[in-house]
Amino acid sequence: MSPWIPALCTGLGVLFLAALALGDQTIPPLDVIGALIGEEGPTGIIVTQLRLPRAIIGAIVGAALGLAGAVCQTIMRNPLADPGIIGINAGAALAATLVIVEIGSLPESILPVASFTGALAATVGIFALSWRNGTTSLRLILVGIGISAFAGACASFISTFGEVAAVQRAMVWLAGSLRDSRWDRLPELIGWMLPACLLIAFGARELDLIVLGDDVARGRGQPVNLVRIALLFGTAMICGAAVAAAGLIAFVGLAAPHIARGLVGQRHAALLPASALTGALLVLAADLIARRALAPVQLPVGIVTAMLGAPFFGVLLWRRRND
Amino acid sequence: MTENLAARNLTLDYGRTTVVDALDLDIHPGRFTALLGPNGCGKSTILRALAGLLRPADGEVILDGRSIAQTGTKALARRVGILAQAATAPDGLTVEDLVRQGRYPHRSIFQPWQEDDRRAVENALARTALTDLRDRPIDRLSGGQRQRAWIAMTLAQESSIVLLDEPTTYLDLGHQVEVLSLMRQLVDRSGATIVAVLHDLVQAARHADRIVLLAGGRIMAQGEPKDVLTPDNLRAAFGVEIVVLTDPDTGAPICLPRSARPGDAPLQQECGASLDSTNI
Fold first, then answer.
1. What residue in A sits closest to B55 (Cα-Cα)?
2. Which parts of the sequence belong to the ABC transporter domain (chain B) (predicted)?
3. Quick one: three-class SS letters along B169-181?
């Protein structure tokens, strides 16, 4: 096993403690641990009711984005294929905006269902529009960017006609925010994530083969289309859950798999967990910056990841300029 | 225990263009067959169809009396392995990781890596002289080593029929001979059936047991190299005058191109004018 996986776990643990300790009221690490193991104290509530659910949900959402990005990049055989860029997340966000703005009376638990449906619809749309006797990764990306823009425009359009308070709520959420993280959000997030993660974990071996290209994979006997559809379904579940929990957090799905690949290499048995851990690290770090950089003003975490991610995207394109 | 692979009334097309029309072809088991022919004659297309990568518009490919369309993809891959042209591996993938993918059809979804798998990979690495390079990333290999790594992956599959699309392209002379000798060994020692699309007529004649000469999606001639590689057949297939000599060591035919047939390909004729010989 790669030594990087324990290293990433350690880093995540440290960052997690920092996320619990830092804030308007800084709590010493020992008190944090005390609060975690159930000691009564004045700071206990801040840790267990405010910061802990936010850190856990942030880490899970980050892991989801990293994992979804890794799967997408492999099955589309393109390093720029990230659910945030090719419109899967935008589809989820559009469906969720629809729910928040237009049908404000509905219970919040419908949000993950809506965003999963949106993510799946966007995925199917991307494939349908780019399919011509199979598909190429370039066509998938171009169509995906188009779908992403279209879904974004639709969300703005809906917002224009919505009730002001609901629209404002949707806008903050769309920018990607962990502010609304509460314990009662956690079960539904895990409920969506767990089956999808199992599906993808069993698919690690398939991913190792499909990355070599459709012809090579078929020549080894892989049912390529079935594998691609099953894994994209899992990806849509993950993206839907992540978007429902925290809105649009840009660039984590793009950057995390790249960093992970540099650390542990190409084998998906290591690459998938490493991408998830890296994604969790990135979101926790970005949320920490979002909370502390302009305190007491709280930035949405999505803005921080976008500001950090944009240069990363540029570097990636620059390094591949001759391909 | 090698198996019979054949095409019956096989019609293949890309979109609206028919590439191969009603082809009947028998691959002789336990022999090395070379598919030859000009560019665009359908060699690679036929090879892809034989491996089940391309669905026929009409007709079928038969493996031991049964259509491969009715055989499961993994079961087919255990019996027929194909190395397609110009495959690319992602950056950083090691030789061993690539070769291990050849074991895919032998493993069910929950089955761990087994002794059989390990042995097949070691064998494939040894046969292609890649054992020492197993941890090297594919993108840091030379063209010849890279091609051998892909061949090793196909060998690790341990199918009794191996199809190769231009396995010697991009290789220097030494590596070309090495790859073809390896094919020869697989046939002679392991009783494998090999079908390879080749470009070099001399090497095909030297190493293959049988040659299938294709032009325009149809078989022009097939049989032993000396019966197929005649000036008449080659003129008809390639539109080039060819002198056929005999290899003093092996008796295999050696084809020497002289010039384009007059009026057929004016550009080629102009370029080849200085090489013009008396036999036009």
1. A133
2. 5-241
3. CCCCHHHHHHHHH
Q: Shortest CB distance from A221 goes to which of B74, B92, B93? A: B74
In the sheet that holds B58-63, the strands lie side by side as: B17-27, B5-14, B58-63, B66-67
Residues B107 and B210 in one domain: yes
**Counting beta carbons within 10 angstroms of the beta carbon of residue A48, is it exposed (0 to 12), middle (13 to 18) or buried (19 or more)?**
middle
Any CB–CB contact under 8 A between B84 and chain A? yes
pLDDT given at position A321: 66
Chain A residue numbers touching B154 (CB-CB < 8 A): 219
How high does pLDDT run on average in chain A?
Answer: 86
B40 and B114 within one domain: yes
A vs B: CB pairs below 8 A: 64
Q: pLDDT for B194-247, tens place per residue?
A: 999 998 898 899 999 999 999 888 888 999 998 998 888 888 888 888 888 888
The residue segments making up the domain with residue B254 are 239-280
Domains of chain A, each with CATH number or no CATH: 4-319 (1.10.3470.10)
Q: Among positive and negative, which fits the CA dihedral B150, B154, B155, B156? A: positive
DSSP string, A193-235: HHHHHHHHHHTHHHHHHHTT-HHHHHHTT--HHHHHHHHHHHH
